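for the record, two folds in this file. i put them one after another cuz i was lazy. first one right below, seq on top, structure tokens after. the second one comes after a little note so u can tell where it starts
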Amino acid sequence: MIIDPMKVFVTVVEQQHFSRAAELLNLSQPGVSQHIRNLEHEFGVQLLYRSPKHVQITQAGELLYSRAKQILSLYEEAKQEINELQNVVTGTLNVGASYTIGEYILPRVLADFAKQYAFVDIQVTIANTLQIQDGVRSNKLDIGLVEGEVSPSVELQVDAFMEDEMVIVARSDHALCKERLVTPDMLQDQVWIVREPGSGTRAYWERLIQQNALRVKRSYMFSSSQGVKEAVVEGLGIAMLSRFIVQKDLLHHMGYNEIAMLPLSSRYTRQLSIVQSTKAIPSKAMDKFRDRIKSHRDS
């Protein structure tokens, strides 16, 4: 069937590597190479330039890649429609999530979804907000779940699904933890633990700093929220994080918490959003997943 070599070709192009494509598809590397050679023989053109480190797509390959994505989408749509005749939801969903959502919200949503729609194959990518948006734009991801401000565009459809409270945390013995109320001016000249550029959490922290004209004594950058939290526990500095990340740590454990939430004078919130390509072909599985994500805010 032509679908199989098309799927192999698209995966090689997106991974820019034969070995990584073979691993994702559970095929041997020679098997992947044979699929590509068969396609090149069928079309009578070279589709990819090979090198030991990566592959580069030719002009003919670009054209085939675009059409192959459409063919695969139409194939999945046809499968969905046929299965809907039997009232069964199937298919593959490539879901992307920023770190806070992917590590602290999505697992519970997926567990509930999988119980009801066991025949839907879901692949999850966790990265920062900008990377997830890029994945949706390039059609590598069917749906993205991101934190922070995302503006709708001709490429992206954005739909908020949950409010997320942002809190500032410190090690329990930090001087600010002894205050009854912490105002923005009391955050001057602090050492901060922050996420990397491109993270929704980092963007929100930068806005806090700018809006309150805060001086930063020093900052340490980590590429994961778990790393930020552990640095706070070790007393390296204070951090702004989603309440989802620290809520378990704030529960008393044998009468003592390693980490504490500062009693802020203001409440800080942001929206968590669903992002999809405006060119995405809808499917029953995608619609059901969106419904489950939106219903999660009420659960």
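(here's the note) second protein begins now
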Amino acid sequence: MNRHSLSILALAFASSIIAFAAEAAEVKNIVIVHGALADGSGWRKASDILVRRGFKVTVVQEPITSLADDIAATNRVLDLQDGPTLLVGHSYGGMVISEAGHNPVVTGLVYVAAFEPDKGESLLGLASSKPAGGMNIRETKDGKYLYIDPAAFAKDFAADLPKDEANFMARSQVFAAKEAFSARAGDPAWNTKPSWSIVATEDRSINPELERDMAKRAGSKVTEIKASHAVFASQPEKVADFIERAANTL
């Protein structure tokens, strides 16, 4: 074998080693997409736990003006990550991560009391297929956005949170464009990437049976936590534990 052939062989071997190392790289980046009718601040406790355990956590503050806008906002954050990333979505955030999860830095998806749509499905269509306990949803005066009546927020969204925390969430909620809830999903990333799902068994926003059905269809690894829809805030340790296990599995 001549020197040129040896050089080509050495280059190919080095490239394969680099590719293997990248594929086997430890997942230390976690990107969280909050749900509608909430904002990212509710993830503070779970985020702090994960940071103490050595993860770099970023929370996407998507505008919830349209599904496309929210996917774009998530991709902007994903493009800033410096290595393999676990993408986490709560509630409506599951609609977002199912498509943003195609970003090449994403190695897995975690759904937290979230929608796991298949192609062509909308949040409204999924939610109406198995209605939950009921939510006091209202429209803004212009008829374009939706929000939860603050007086009913604790009961409908965060029944297991202390009153002051539930009240803060009620008054910091991000109104959701109706367009975002009716938009149809594209091909889901869970078809090609591993996924995990938390079912909140006391959820009044998404029927827990619907959460179980979607997770089964997607082949997600499931854990169940006795909690409200705001499981990420009321049970941050358990949610952080589950996210960490998912990251360590990749």
